[in-house]
Amino acid sequence: MTNHFIGYQSGRGFLYQLSGASKLIFFILVSVACMTTYDTRLIVLVGLSSLALFKMANIRWQQVSFVIKFIAFFALLNVLMVYLFEPSYGETIYGVKTVLWQGYGRFYLTSQELFYLFNLALKYFCTVPLAVLFLMTTHPSQFASSLNQIGVPYKVAYAVSLTLRYIPDVQEEFYMIRMSQEARGLELSSKEKLMKRIKGNLQIVIPLIFSSLERIDTVSTAMELRRFGKNKKRTWYTYKNFTIADILTIVLAIVIVFITLFLFKWNHGRFYNPWQ
User: Fold this and answer.
1) Chain segment 150-184, per-residue pLDDT in tens
2) Angle CA(33)–CA(34)–CA(40) in degrees, nearest 5?
3) How far apart are CA 268 and CA 266, in angstroms?
């Protein structure tokens, strides 16, 4: 059951050997580059590379299926909302109008709008896999030390570390409660109607949130009793110095950023226009 949780998964391989700081820098730089450009070639390349990294990290579909489906739903919803608000935005961007579907009134579909919406959806599947990879291959303590290593105050870094540690615990507790409820006869699987499943899960989530807040208060009190935050600096047990692989990872991220800037100049803007 724990294989379905989003959180750090111990493993071997190139990604697990990298420093958390280098992975964090790579994730930030590449995400910014992919979110600012609409060059389909670069976005597709980064997306396919992310899938290859999943294979290298031995992360199975079952471990990330829920997150991917969740993101796919919101990506589809975002694409739909963009189309409903401005169905002619694509032709405005690319300066060409190729009608594929006449539609009704102001709602029609062009090749340009479809291409723009395709690029918009690609951005989700370009950056989200990188975020999932980072979370699942970086130990929370190493992530905290990495944040502190790049200049984030250690109090903030430690808070992030506790959050990442706590997410799998909350997921495990939720699934345990849900299994207990199902054993008592409360149907929460896909066999039940959607609204009843939502109502049943809310009956679990709301008490779980309050119990989680109580646990957080206990942890913060314990940290205060141990005088956490007294000193301006602290050492980290999981601190790792940069290796050649870390430096190459950061250099690759910088190269991707420069490629994005070059594409801005080459395309005369953020958008790649195949109709020119």
Assistant:
1) 777 777 777 777 777 777 677 777 777 777 777 77
2) 125
3) 6
Q: What is the rounded CA–CA span in Å between residue 43 and residue 130?
A: 12
- The answer to whether the beta carbons of residues 34 and 43 sit under 8 Å apart is yes
CA distances 39 to 26, 31, 33, 267, 274, Å, are 19, 14, 10, 8, 10
Q: Tell me the whole-structure pTM to 2 decimals.
A: 0.74
Closest CA to 54 of 13, 5, 4, 1: 13
For the chain, the domains span: 1-20+37-138, 140-237
To which H or E segment does residue 104 belong?
strand 99-104
Closest CA to 177 of 166, 188, 167: 188
Q: pLDDT tens digit string along 83-133?
A: 888 888 888 888 888 888 887 878 888 888 889 899 888 888 888 888 888
Using N-to-C axis directions, what is the helix angle for 20-36 and 140-149, rounded to 10°? 70
